[in-house]
Amino acid sequence: MRRGSLVQLILVAIAAAAAGTAIALLPNWLPQPASREAGRIHFVFWFLTGICIFIFSIVASVTAYAVVKFRRKPDDDSDGPPIHGHTGLEITWTAIPAILVTAITIVSAIVLAKDDAAGANPLRVNVVAQQFAWSFYYPAYGNKRSGILRLPVHRSVLLRMTSKDVVHSFWVPEFSQKQDVVPGLHPTLHITPTRVGTYPVICTELCGLGHALMRSQTIVMTETAFDKWAHGAQTAAAVGGGGSSIFNQQGCTACHRLAAAGATGTIGPDLDKLAAEAQRAGKPLASFVRESIVAPNAYVEKGYPKGIMPQDFGTKLSKTQLDALVRFLVSSAKKGTK
Question: CA gyration radius for the chain?
């Protein structure tokens, strides 16, 4: 290859690599990180992606240049010059990938070690997955249960997970971490939220008919707001709790719409229409509400598949809590018909 052609080739490769990398980095591919760990993971992603795009651009541009520059001329039936190897090139294309792979390994190992290290005095939350709902328990607050993951901002959190039935996978996009939740195992995940807000909790492992509906929320709040919620929930639990509190604590707001509770869920039936649905079922309102909680498959509203709502509220709630929840829903339904 003539020196001029080689210089052209190098310039084309560098220009294409720079342009390709810049263009790829312009779009906002990832959600804005809401945890300390997410920022580190995003760095690894872009570090690896930048290397891949840079190398791909070089290879693609060199290939395209060679195809055009050294294409076969018309009526040229001669053989190309014999090539028996090039020691310098062979060392180069072996050494460069080895260096890049080593760099990627070191960066990834450092980030993984940091993300796996819990901070001082972490808030411990036990996460239980089941078809098709998430439950979150807070041991430091009387093992209080919530259907929504509430976390204080800027505090280290240790999530300890397990599943009651099949394999699920816990994912909050803004935290950039995903963990398979397996029956009989208790994997952990460390999170340090950095941004107040509400983020989705999604199951990313096909777990049955209601997999697409297995969602909840993560609410990151200030330390003061979290303490107020946690201690308030603990006090309510000690006295059995009011129906509205139980409705929120059990995560019903994640799936159902109910104006009295400020709930706007769309996964399950609209509870503002309970009275009309009880009438269609031909049952007294209170009996219909109670049965819908303890035996949700006994009557399934049209348009909703059977087996989506958890089946264990009858054993999970005490009689006092169940009675309070029924009274709250019945009262809300009656107000909705006025």
Answer: 29
Better pLDDT: 156 or 27: 156
Within a 13 Å sphere around the CA of 287, how many CA atoms are in the beta-carbon half? Answer: 6
pLDDT at 120: 79
Superfamily of domain 123-237: Cupredoxins -  blue copper proteins (2.60.40.420)
CATH fold for domain 243-336: Cytochrome Bc1 Complex; Chain D, domain 2 (1.10.760)
Global pTM reads 0.69
- Label the pairing between strands 149-152 and 177-181: unpaired
3-state secondary structure 25-78: HCCCCCCCCCEHHHHHHHHHHHHHHHHHHHHHHHHHHHHHHHHHHCCCCCCCCC
Give the C-alpha separation, 294 to 314, whole Å. 4
Which of 133, 118, 236, 217 shows the shortest CA–CA distance to 172? 217
3-state secondary structure of 296: coil
322 touches 330 (CB < 8 A): no
The secondary structure element, H or E, covering residue 322 is helix 319-336
Question: Which three-class secondary structure state does DSSP give residue 18?
Answer: helix
Q: What is the pLDDT of residue 257?
A: 84
Cβ pair 286, 297 in contact under 8 A: no
pLDDT at 4: 60
- Domain coordinates in residue numbering, the chain: 3-67+90-116, 123-237, 243-336
